[in-house]
Amino acid sequence: MLSSSHEALHRIFQEDPGLFARAVRGLGVSFPPPVSASPLPTDLTENRPMERRVDTEDGEFILAVESQGKRASDKPASWAYCLSHLYAEYGIPPVLLVVCADRSTAAWAARQVDIGPPQWPSLTLRPLVLGPDSLPVIASPDEAARDIPLTVLSAALHRRDPDADARLNALAKALKGLSADDEDTAGTFIELTGQGLGKTPAADLWRHLMAVDLSFFQSETAQRLRGEGRIEGRTEDILRLLDGRGIEVSAEELERIAGCGDLDTLDVWFTRAITATSAAEVFEGDEAG
After folding, report:
1. Is the CB of residue 138 less than 8 Å from the CB of residue 170?
2. HSE (side-chain half, CA atoms, 13 Å) at 72
3. In whole angstroms, what is the distance from residue 71 CA to residue 109 CA?
4. Cβ-based burial of 257 (10 A; exposed 0-12, middle 13-18, buried ≥19)
5. Please, what is the average pLDDT of the chain?
6. Which fold is adopted by the domain 4-130?
7. Which whole number is the average pLDDT over 261-277?
8. pLDDT at residue 133 greater than cutoff 90
């Protein structure tokens, strides 16, 4: 099963096929912007790359996008198979783009791999690789507004960097401007950002921004993310309060608090935690579960 962050790094190129040409400029490779693009049949449950047929003024090619989270010894062979299959199936030049949020994985994926005996390799695999060092850090709202898809991708690839605050605030301000014209599109990029950040502190910060700074959004996605931010914030408030009062919380009690998705219940627990002498008192009067 694919993780949300894995899927997001595919979907961002589906939302904006022209992002590929803009993103790889930093690698010193120039592709013309697409005139049109259409998805090709693929089965993501088999962990295959997302494939898209791209038409440009200079011709057409097939773009296969793979999100890679860690090194895997079998990947070069499967990538070579995918490219060979696409070329045999459609007769159109294929390009493999590998997207990595980890610097060491990006360096590994960027290696040229020769397939065949050393005296005469039959195939050479040369993926284009986007990693944290391939895209600029975008921390200005004006710069973010000029290319929101690239900013979302950059935020996802830099998600483990310690200074995420300025970048995510810049993206939030850019999305606020976009929402005036197209709230659905803004909502899509909000969701992609949250997914692309994975399980990192930056994702917690993004949920907080959704709960506070982007309260003007009315879309279902924005409302859900705001709700998640408020729930997570109240959960942290309860645990911080109990810890500050020197009250021990068992693993079972911690799981119950962290697993509660109802904001009203969490508010009740927070009020009880102010005067409780034990964690058990926080749940008094509630049904077990």
Report:
1. yes
2. 14
3. 8
4. buried
5. 83
6. Trna Endonuclease; Chain: A, domain 1 (3.40.1350)
7. 84
8. yes
H or E segment to which residue 62 belongs: strand 59-67
Total residues belonging to the chain? 289
Is the sign of the CA dihedral 240, 243, 249, 251 positive or negative?
A: positive
Residue 179 to residue 124: CA distance in whole angstroms: 45
- Please list the residues that pair with 279 across neighbouring strands: none
> Which amino acid appears at position 221 of this protein?
T
pLDDT in tens, 150-186: 999 999 999 988 888 888 989 988 888 776 566 778 8
Alpha carbon of residue 206 to chain centroid: 12
Domains of the chain by residue range: 4-130, 136-218, 229-289
Residue 155: C-alpha distances to residues 52, 110, 167, 182 (Å): 23, 21, 7, 21
Q: What is the pLDDT of residue 42?
A: 60
Whether 19 contacts 13, CB under 8 Å: yes
Is beta strand 94-99 parallel, antiparallel or unpaired with respect to 128-130? parallel
Residue 90 Ramachandran class (φ > 0 left, ψ -120 to 50 alpha, else beta): alpha
Q: Output phi, psi for 126, to 5 deg.
A: -135, 85
